[in-house]
Specification:
Layout: E1 6-11, H1 22-41, E2 45-52, H2 57-66, H3 70-88, E3 94-97, H4 101-116, E4 121-130, E5 135-136, E6 142-145, E7 154-155, E8 172-176, E9 184-193, H5 199-208, H6 215-227, E10 232-233, E11 235-237, E12 252-254, H7 256-271, H8 275-280, E13 284-289, H9 295-309, E14 324-326, E15 329-330, H10 341-347, H11 352-361, E16 369-371, H12 373-403, H13 415-436, H14 440-461, H15 463-469, H16 474-491, H17 497-506, H18 541-562, H19 574-578, E17 582-592, E18 600-605, E19 610-615, H20 623-626, E20 630-634, E21 640-642, E22 645-647, E23 650-651, E24 653-655, E25 661-663
Parallel strand pairs: 1-2, 1-13, 2-3, 14-16
Antiparallel strand pairs: 4-5, 4-9, 6-7, 6-8, 9-10, 11-12, 14-15, 17-18, 17-20, 18-19, 20-23, 21-22, 24-25
């Protein structure tokens, strides 16, 4: 196995068109942070590189929808994302952005180098062009009917109804989302990276030299290579992004998939003048933490770019995760079906580690997994509180009770004591082995098993009973318990940094490193520990219900938005229409019709007379609320008996997608009897 002098860890650049949600955390940022914190505790040279991806069509779409500039969009969300990561404890050495001057310079130079080496193909192709808007259309600026499921509203790159990947030219009846007009096809020149040229290298480098990669990563790469690689455009016709730095490329920018990974390099340049040591020295280990949707770009495309440039190292591993679902449904930004990090930090103040724990214990490492609020609550209450928190609290409280907070001097160790102390290093070794192999679920399970060991040890030895019958045995028990506690304060730091720091403060432990982990004596006899405080607290049902209600509201809103208006009724003639006499009127009296659910009896001043109208609005309005309200009423509707009451007219109501009724009323008060025309 290659021995490296340093490690460079990069994390996928999130699009700066919205906040961060738990899917991002579980897939990329929590595992990357755990790994980097572990290496730092080992005293290794390691950098964690991140930043916002601020180019591409999603940004321009957001800007267009909100009536602002792309720069306004990225400035807003870059700030939100960076703050959320910081508050959550993702310990970036640098968190940069692809709209920075350093990035523009780095990306431009990278393109120029490849272009000067003849590594690109230049070719013309037909692409859709909006003649009214005067611009070529990116995939997401084109919508039409899906050729597979025949649903309308498919984008030029994907149908969100059936999930099929598309080319814009596949769409039936395509229309520009800018002008609403059908686009025309027009020739345009672009630069292409010939991935097929790099296929022999990729076959050897991935399929033969990196069989240790995770099965989901290796399998996806093999599938792409087996199908045969094709040239891929590195430029696009857009006005937002890094301009293509050659003559004759006006109105063209670097395609975001080419531009974004160079952001790792530019961010490192921003961080340190020694950036080349981390990117060009073969004794540096490069790791990409990403989600499964980015595997091809980081394992096939970016390595081909680096190989073509010639002076950069290649990634040694790409420990990509699968997707995290939410309450049985795919996380969706557009449908607001997500747990947003900035909202979580408001609703669960100082509970960053609870979410870190749950997302790690339930990480989608080899298959998609599901986050549920009930599981979140159960893991907090039954594991963090009842196992870890309970053991730590008992160890510290009893030490203060019996020995005034001083670590007691142990007596003779029994076989059980020695077995327990020996087991500490076993759990540390298992945790470390899992971390080294990017198995973070297994790692946190083994770390928590050390807390389980401590709980079992206290339960089996029962020092609170022995203090009355065998006082001399208790110092040894408490000594052993405190050594487990101190080990936990180090072992859990990569996973639960806020809680581990709190525990080290309680134990009066100075700065520590991984070499102490597994030691039988971390706290010497007579070491004074501080007062105990709860590491975790129970999460109540009401807090979980609040979160479930949030999601329920999102689902209701989505269903309402998805409901289409009823089809138009058959045409009527103008003569039929003018027969209707609609007037303004005011409700004078209102009462619910007995033994009915929907009916309300109204007395309405129509300006012509005062008449009784029976209306089916009782489910939506209280009688007292609508007295004095001005309404629109069809006054020449033939009288009809309803529940024995003669109704003389009809109140006009609008019904929204979820069945709610709203009065059709004049926007300002008018004289009763005014005609509605």
């Amino acid at each position: 196995m290659t021995q490296f002098k340093r490690t460079l860890v990069t994390t996928a650049l999130p699009y700066a068109n919205g906040p961060i949600h738990i899917g991002h955390l579980a897939g990329v940022y929590v595992p990357a942070d755990i790994y980097v914190r572990y290496l730092r505790l080992k005293g290794e040279d390691v950098l964690l590189i991140g930043g916002s991806d601020e180019h591409g069509v999603p940004i321009t779409l957001k800007a267009r929808n909100e009536g602002i500039t792309p720069q306004d969009v990225v400035d807003k969300y870059h700030g939100i994302i960076k703050k959320s990561f910081s508050e959550f404890g993702i310990s970036f050495d640098v968190y940069s952005r692809t709209s920075s001057e350093v990035h523009y310079e780095t990306a431009s130079q990278f393109f120029k180098t490849l272009n000067e080496k003849g590594e690109f193909l230049e070719k013309e192709s037909e692409q859709y062009y909006d003649e009214e808007a005067g611009q070529f259309l990116a995939d997401r600026y084109i919508m039409g009917t899906c050729p597979h499921c025949h649903k309308e509203g498919a984008y030029g790159d994907q149908c969100e109804s059936c999930g099929t990947s598309l080319n814009a030219t596949d769409l039936i009846n395509p229309k520009s989302t800018i002008s609403g007009k059908p686009p025309v096809r027009k020739n345009t020149k672009h630069w292409y990276l010939p991935l097929d040229k790099h296929e022999p290298f990729l076959k050897q480098w991935i399929l033969e030299d990196h069989k240790e990669w995770k099965s989901n990563v290796y399998g996806q790469c093999k599938s792409w290579i087996d199908l045969g690689l094709q040239p891929r455009a590195v430029s696009r016709d857009l006005d937002w992004g890094v301009p293509v730095p050659v003559e004759g490329a006006d109105g063209k920018v670097l395609y975001v998939w080419f531009d974004a990974p160079i952001g790792y390099i530019s961010a490192t340049r921003e961080l340190t003048p020694e950036w080349e040591k981390y990117w060009k020295d073969p004794e540096t280990r490069l790791l990409h933490f990403i989600g499964k949707d980015n595997i091809v770009f980081h394992c096939i495309v970016f390595p081909s770019m680096l190989k073509a440039e010639g002076s950069f190292i290649l990634p040694d591993n790409v420990p990509a995760n699968e997707f995290l679902n939410l309450e049985g449904d795919k996380i969706s930004t557009s449908r607001n079906w997500a747990v947003w990090l900035h909202e979580y930090l408001e609703d669960f103040k100082d509970k960053q580690d609870v979410l870190r724990y749950v997302l790690t214990a339930n990480a989608p490492e080899t298959k998609d997994n599901d986050f549920t609020w009930k599981d979140f609550q159960a893991r907090n209450n039954n594991e963090l509180v009842a196992i870890l928190g309970n053991f730590v609290n008992r160890s510290m409280v009893l030490t203060h009770k019996y020995y005034n907070g001083a670590v007691p001097t142990p007596g003779a160790f029994t076989d059980f004591d020695n077995e327990t102390l020996d087991a500490i290093s076993t759990y540390v070794e298992k945790t470390e082995n899992a971390l080294r192999n990017f198995k973070f679920r297994e790692a946190i399970k083994e770390a928590m098993n050390l807390a389980r060991l401590g709980n079992k040890y206290l339960a089996d030895t029962e020092p609170w009973k022995l203090i009355k019958s065998d006082e001399g045995r208790v110092p040894t028990i408490m000594y052993v318990s405190l050594q487990i506690t101190a080990n936990l304060a180090i072992l859990l730091e990569p996973f639960l940094p806020f809680s581990a720091q709190k525990l080290r403060n309680m134990l009066n432990m100075s700065e520590v490193d991984w070499s102490l982990c597994g030691k039988k004596e971390v706290l010497a006899s007579d070491h004074q520990i501080g007062k105990a405080a709860l590491l975790f607290e129970k999460i109540e049902d009401t807090e979980i219900e609040q979160q479930l209600n949030k999601l329920k509201e999102s689902k209701t809103a989505n269903e309402a938005a998805g409901k289409q208006s009823s089809p138009a009724k058959p045409d009527i003639s103008y003569d039929e229409f003018v027969k209707m006499d609609i007037r303004t009127g005011t409700i004078l009296e209102a009462e619910k019709v007995p033994k009915t659910k929907k009916l309300m009896k109204l007395l309405v001043d129509t300006g012509l007379d005062q008449r009784t109208v029976v209306s089916g609005i009782a489910e939506f309005f209280e009688a007292t609320q609508i007295i004095g309200r001005q309404v629109s009423i069809l006054v020449n509707l033939a009288p009809r008996k309803i529940k024995g009451i003669e109704s003389q007219g009809m109140i006009l109501m609008a019904e929204d997608a979820d069945g709610k009724l709203v009065f059709v009323s004049p926007s300002e008060k008018v004289k009763n009897g005014s005609e509605v025309k």
